[in-house]
Amino acid sequence: MKQDQTLFKQLEKLLTEQRNPASREIDLADSREIVSIINSEDKKVAESVELRLDEIASAIETIVSGLKKGGRLLYFGAGTSGRLGVLDASECPPTFGTDPQTVQGFIAGGKEAMFVAQEGAEDSEQEGEKELDQLNVTSNDIVVGLAASGRTPYVHGVIKKAKKIGSPTIFVTTVSSDQVDLEVDHMIDIPVGPEVIMGSTRMKSATAQKMVLNMLTTGAMIRLGKVYQNVMVDLQLTNKKLEERAKRIVMMLAGLEYKEATLYLDKADYHVKTALLMALGNLDKPQAEKELFKNDGFIRKALLDLK
To answer: Which residues are the active-site residues?
Structure first.
C-alpha cells in the first residue's frame, strides 16, 4: 500500500499526467475542433525539441564513436516508447544498409508487447538488468533508455546496469530532467507539457521521442558516410522497389540514363555507393571499393581524394 501511494504521488507531479487546459472542453467538440486542438498542441513539440539540439548532437557523436568501435546502438523502453525504439531500429537496415545487429530495439515484455500490452512487464528494474546480461552488452555499445514519464523501472534497470558495464548512456524523456532520478551521459529531456488527453503519452510525448530518434540514427548514419549530398546511398536492395530506387539514385547523381545506371549497378553487384563512385570517378569496381575503404565510406571525400 505504501509503495502504491508513493507511485501515486510521483504520477501526480509528472507533467505528462497533468490536465491540459486547452482541451478541457474537447468532449463537446466536433471533429474539426478536435483535430484543431490536437494540431495546435503538436506544433509545440518541435519547439521543445529545438531547445535540446545541443545535447542531441552530442549524443550523435557518442553513437558514431561507439559504432566505429564495432559497438551497437540499443534502444530500451516500455509501451509506446519501446515500440518507437523497435520501429527506429527496424528501419535502419533497409534505409542505411546497416547489419540488423547494429541498431536494435527492445521492449519490456518482449516481442508480444509490440502488439498486445504486457501489463506489469515494465515494473521491474531487475528485468531491465537481465535484458542487458542476455545481450552481452559491452562498453562499446551505446544504451538508450526511452521513458516518457522518466520513471519506468525496466528502463532505469537497463541504464543502471549499463553504467556499471561502462557503456555510454542516453536517456530520452518527455518530462523535465529535474523529475528524473537517474545518472546518464546524455539527458535528452523534452518536456512537452500535458497531453491533449491526460496521460495519453502516445500523442505529444511519442511525437517528441520519434523526432529525437530520427535525429539520432539519421545524424549518426550521415556522420558514418551513408549519405551523399542529401541522398541515402547505402540502402539494402531487398525488394524491387528499392532496386528501382537505387537505379534512380545513380541516374540522378551521376547524370546517367536508365540502362547506364543499371549497367553500373550490375558491375557493382548492386552496391549503390560503389556504382556511384565508379560512375562519378570513372573507376572500375576494385578501384571504387579501394577509394571507399580509404575514405571511410564517404563518396564526397573519395571524389575529392581523386582530384
So the answer is: 91, 122
β-pair partners for 171: 145, 187
* pTM as predicted: 0.89
- Do the domain assignments include residue 1? no
Task: Dump pLDDT digits (tens) for 196-215.
Answer: 899 888 999 999 999 999 99
Total structural domains in the chain? 2
Residue pointed to by grid coordinates 491526460:
198
Between residues 188 and 194, which one has the greater pLDDT? 188
Coil, strand or helix at 305: helix
List alpha helices for the chain, DSSP H: 2-13, 31-50, 53-68, 79-96, 125-135, 153-165, 204-223, 240-254, 258-267, 272-281, 285-294, 299-306
Residue pair 203/78 in contact (Cβ under 8 Å)? The answer is: no
Report in angstroms the alpha-carbon separations of 231 from 65, 73, 90: 23, 22, 19
Residues in contact with 213: Cβ distance below 8 Å, sequence separation at least 6, in sequence order: 75, 84, 85, 88, 146, 172
Pull the grid cell for residue 175: 518530462
For the beta carbon of residue 291, count every other beta carbon within 10 angstroms. Answer: 21
- The CATH number of the domain holding residue 51 is 3.40.50.10490
| Calpha distance 263→118 (Å, rounded) | 50
Judge whether 165 lies within some domain. yes
